[in-house]
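Researcher: We're reviewing a set of sequences before deciding which ones to prioritize for further study. For each one, I'd like a predicted 3D structure that I can look through quickly. This is Malignant fibrous histiocytoma-amplified sequence 1-like. If possible, include the structure in token form so it fits the rest of the review sheet.
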Amino acid sequence: MKPAQSHLSLVLNGDKFWKYRLERDPTEGGKRRLKLQGKELISVPLEVFDLEELQVLEMSPERESCLTYRMDLVPREIGQLRNLSILNLDTNELKVIPAEIGALKNLERLTLSNNFLSFLPKEFGRLQKLTSLHLANNAFREFPIQICQMRNLTFLDASDNKIRTIPPSVENLSKLETLLLFFNRLESLPETFSNLRSLHTLWLGKNKLRTLPRKFGNLVNLEWGDNQCSSNFEGNPLENPPLEICRGGPLEIKQYFAAWSDEGYLISYAAAF
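Model: Here's the predicted structure for Malignant fibrous histiocytoma-amplified sequence 1-like, in token form for your review sheet.
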């Protein structure tokens, strides 16, 4: 008589191995989570994309010893994971994101920081449930216009890139609360930027800004002070208004611009106080 196989060995046979790897993530409300690491990032097993119940997928090396293995291509099959709500792909060697990512209609959080991305596919704009997007430390020279279609976005980190301009359609991000754009090459902001009334935290330090939109002072919900969440413009060659005015926050900025006539010259800034 053949010895009976253990339950574990049965589970590990074939595709069931990946179902066995699924775990409930207590930090994400018990969502079904799978973490790939090591050599799995070099060649992602296609069986992973058959896990219809998967909600959280982590494909980021987490320790220095794991950095030898990094993903350089996201399989097109990623679009099959229709129930995915969190996708972590940071700290890899990605240069492109497949168009199929646009099929992840339930995605709420996406981390793509610390890669080599310079553009996003047009299908990216279909991620209408996305609330949190991390794009820091990539190679973007332009602000991806697709982001402006994400009307439910509340958090965006696009710091440490080479972005020079922000499109006027950024005003569509009416729910945006945190916007991190420090260490870029921004030279100006569109006038429509002043319509982002939900902003609480805005980091624009270490850019090339010389002027601000005249209605910037309307962003009255911005945190301004000495805490780590405070908005700031440090490291910009600001002239209009000067950096010392900007340090005073939206109210002082509003008063500064109120002192200008329609022709564009300063009547009397001191009279505004």
